[in-house]
Specification:
36% strand; PmbA/TldD fold; five-stranded mixed beta barrel; 10 helices
Length: 454
């Protein structure tokens, strides 16, 4: 168990004390063994939270969550069964185990099935400073929501409506344990303030938003600042118009650039690779990005959105290069996908852990000047990406740029290309890094894409 999970287990705002989570995990593994499982693993978790939404100064919703769950997987040889339950009573736990065992016995053998290799399991559990409860009352949350919304509407008289402001706080805790003797877990927190408003002029209506999110309440932007940013983002979109179809450079704002990383992660993740459903098959050691771009995975960042000492199988995480000088240096594999590929796990069962993209010294205005004439994308719409071919086509909105400065807002356009070409054609990454999520990147300038309009 990590230090974060061990400290102050007397807290009563969680449904159960930490010791009870550990006891339930032990009971699951014991029942699985008694039922004939040759191996087993379980994740026992709980969460609490509060969310308040204010719209037009009035309270619209107040929501609470207080949840707990058990997820378990059993193995009978190389046959696997899974089940889950929200009931922690002993009879319910045994019933969930029995269901998983029944599934396993009627499932075909899978040579790749099984727990993580014992030598890959985490031995140390650094405290990554992930747990910062926010003792925010409903009344205080309401006032913050009103503050954010009022600041947004005060930006411009053309802001005529609002979708409201939401203030939320949340805490979670889990214990992961398996029959190899591994047991570990920790508490974490995640808080946010967001605001969305609607503006209107002779050209029509526009909407935009802003939010702040952090592990610790002290790391959040002020509510008024969030609202003001939401208002400013909406106002600047008023008067938007479509473009003629053309080819030009495209600059993805930092808030949108993370999507490009997401498509890369999906393409070099185990499931897509062993199913041969990725446009980046066999890309390990090959040049995929422009040579000036590198990506680090940093799972131990203090207070990071995706920080963790071990993955969903208990495998130790470690900092590593995923892309080095444009060359793919690592995949994202859990134990199952690694075995299917004849490789070893990278500690990514459950996904990637804090991707940090290298960047230069240019801020967004400098990137606009470098682009000269082209499209700044501030919103993308729809899916529009073929994971097998890399073909990319998504609806978008943003701003047309002339002579290195924003000329006017644009909408009703589609940006298209192929991710293979887009990755290699990344001209620059800005220093305006968005760290609110788990993909830390600045704005990304792609040399040329098709912009489809009228």
């Amino acid at each position: 168990m990590t230090a974060a999970a061990a400290r102050d287990t007397r807290d009563t705002h969680f449904p159960l004390p930490t010791d009870e989570l550990a006891r339930v995990a032990e009971a699951v593994l014991a029942a699985a063994k008694a039922g004939g499982a040759t191996a087993a693993e379980t994740d026992v978790s709980q969460a609490v939270g509060q969310s308040v939404t204010v719209r037009k100064g009035e309270v619209e919703t107040v929501a609470y969550n207080r949840d707990k769950s058990i997820s378990l997987t059993v193995y009978v040889g190389q046959r696997r069964g899974h089940s889950s339950t929200a009931d922690f009573a002993p009879d319910a736990v045994r019933a969930a185990v029995d269901k998983a065992l029944a599934i396993a016995r009627f499932t075909a053998e899978d040579p790749a099935a099984g727990l993580a290799d014992p030598d890959r399991l985490a031995k140390t559990f650094p405290d990554l400073d992930l747990y910062h409860p926010w003792g925010l009352s409903v009344d205080a949350a309401i006032e913050l929501g009103r503050e954010a919304e009022a600041a947004a509407l005060a930006v411009d008289s053309r802001l005529t409506n609002t979708e409201g402001a939401t203030v939320g706080r949340g805490e979670a805790e889990f214990i992961y344990a398996n029959s190899l003797g591994f047991a570990g877990g920790f508490r974490s927190s995640r808080h946010h303030i967001d605001c969305a408003v609607i503006g209107e002029d002779d050209a029509g209506m526009q909407r935009d938003f802003w939010y702040t999110a952090a592990r610790a309440p002290g790391d959040l932007e002020a509510a008024a600042a969030v609202g003001r940013r939401a208002g400013e983002r909406t106002v600047r979109r008023l008067g938007a118009r479509p473009l003629e179809t053309l080819e030009c450079p495209v600059l993805f704002d930092a808030t949108e650039a993370g999507d490009l990383l997401g498509f890369f992660v999906g393409a070099v993740s185990g499931g897509a690779l062993y199913r041969k459903s990725s446009f980046l098959l066999d890309s390990l050691g090959k040049q995929v990005f422009a040579p000036h771009l590198s990506i680090r995975e940093e799972p131990h960042l203090p207070r990071g959105r995706a920080s963790t000492p071990f993955d969903n199988e208990g495998v130790a995480t470690m900092p590593r290069d995923v892309v080095k000088d444009g060359v793919v240096a690592g995949y994202f594999l859990g134990s199952y996908s690694a075995r299917k590929l004849g490789m070893v796990t990278t500690g990514n069962a459950g996904g990637s852990h804090n991707l940090v993209v290298s960047h230069g010294d240019e801020d967004l205005p400098a990137l606009l000047r470098r682009m000269g004439r082209g499209l700044l994308v501030t919103e993308q719409l729809g899916q529009g990406v073929n994971p097998v071919t890399g073909d990319f086509s998504r609806g978008a909105a943003g701003f047309w740029v002339e002579d290195g400065v924003i000329a006017y807002p644009v909408e009703e356009i589609t940006i298209a290309g192929n991710l293979n070409d887009m990755f290699r054609d990344i001209v620059a990454v800005g220093n305006d890094v968005d760290r609110r999520g788990s993909r830390h990147t600045g704005s990304i300038l792609v040399g040329r894409m098709t912009v489809a309009g009228r």
